[in-house]
Design brief:
With 320 residues, this protein is an alpha/beta fold. The protein has nine helices and 18 strands. The strands form four sheets. Strands 3, 5, 6, 9, 10, 17 and 18 form a seven-stranded mixed beta sheet that branches. The longest helix has 15 residues. The N and C termini lie close together (11 Å). 51% of the residues are buried.
């Protein structure tokens, strides 16, 4: 079957390790099901995999892609929950959690096989392309906002780095949930798009906000860390799920953290139950993922190049 896969690890030039071509179709295994992929979406996780982060050389070649929607063996339209092993379904009871493509072949292919437990019904209101955007970036944003930040309608939140998948999702979900959303970006066009999606104000990265906020959604890391801490109300919360600009800020703002009793919460992906809630939320409210570009699978390299350059606003989707 045709697939986009990591053939080599290259930490400096990750796309040098990306190959497109034939790979073996998945084999049947007890407790697992094979899904015919209709759409899959790119994440920065795929670029990090090509750099060897979370993907060991002895696992190569590895089909990339942890987000997908398609049709299962019984003809049902489904969405994949891409965290394998956290509850022991379909794998050994002592196996720790991993994201699809770290240990098991991914979804940038005509077929993917996952534990039966990892398959959820796709709401009829969502297209395959829309559903394929949800399991990583949108689920991460959902958990950051509503589980780990604990914000409520009427609260205020700052989303750093508008344009990325998680940040875009946080703006849309926050607006739909009645939050007052502020956003930052270095790019004027991305700030304008953030306003169109529901942010009440979008400012340049590092610029002073008109008010302090209850929570910050942080995926950028070192470049925005000080600004995130300084933007919080006393007792506020930074929820961090990524560090695309690096994980070592020049100033940790520790004095401000303890004096204002700020909370710093790490967040990774989300649970199957949260993904089910997110799917229902989108179906019921009309909220839809922001799709930057849709490409056929055989043009996957173009999507990777666009994501690496940081030019996208929203998700890049591959169709099979």
């Amino acid at each position: 079957m045709f697939a986009a896969y990591a053939a080599r690890i290259d930490r400096d030039q990750p796309l040098n390790g990306l190959e497109l071509g034939d790979r073996p179709a998945p084999e049947a295994r007890p407790g697992w099901t094979t899904v015919n992929v209709k759409a899959a979406s790119l994440n920065h996780h795929d670029l990090w995999s090509l750099r060897g982060v979370g993907l060991a050389e002895d696992k190569l070649p590895m089909i990339l892609g942890c987000d997908a929607a398609g049709i299962d063996q019984d003809g049902n339209e489904v969405v994949l929950h891409s965290v394998i092993g956290q509850a022991g379904y379909g794998v050994g009871p002592r196996e720790g959690r991993s994201i699809l493509t770290e240990k098991y072949q991914g979804a940038f292919a005509e077929q993917v096989t996952v534990p039966e437990w990892n398959v959820l019904p796709k709401p009829k209101e969502l297209s395959f392309e829309e559903a394929a955007c949800l399991p990583t970036a949108w689920l991460t944003a959902y958990r950051m906002l509503f589980t780990n930040a604990g914000v409520r309608p009427g609260d205020s939140v700052l989303v750093q780095g508008a344009g990325g998948g998680v940040a875009t999702a946080a703006i849309v979900l926050g607006k739909a949930a009645g939050l007052k959303v502020f956003a930052t970006s270095r790019d004027e066009a991305k700030r304008k798009r953030a306003l169109e999606l529901g942010a009440v104000e979008a400012v340049e990265s590092g610029a002073r906000l008109p008010q302090r906020v209850d929570a910050v959604i942080e995926t950028v890391g070192a470049a925005t860390w000080s600004h995130s801490i300084k933007s919080l109300k006393p007792g506020g919360t930074v929820v961090i799920s990524g560090a695309t600009s690096g994980d070592r800020p020049s100033h940790a703002e520790l004095t401000r953290v303890f004096f204002l009793e700020l909370k710093i919460v790490g967040s990774t992906m989300g649970s199957k139950d949260e993904l089910e809630d997110l799917l229902s939320f989108c179906a019921a409210t009309g909220v839809r993922p922001v799709i930057d570009e849709t490409l056929p699978l055989d043009r996957a390299r173009e999507g990777f190049e666009r994501m690496e350059a940081g030019g996208q606003f929203g998700k890049i989707v591959l169709t099979v």
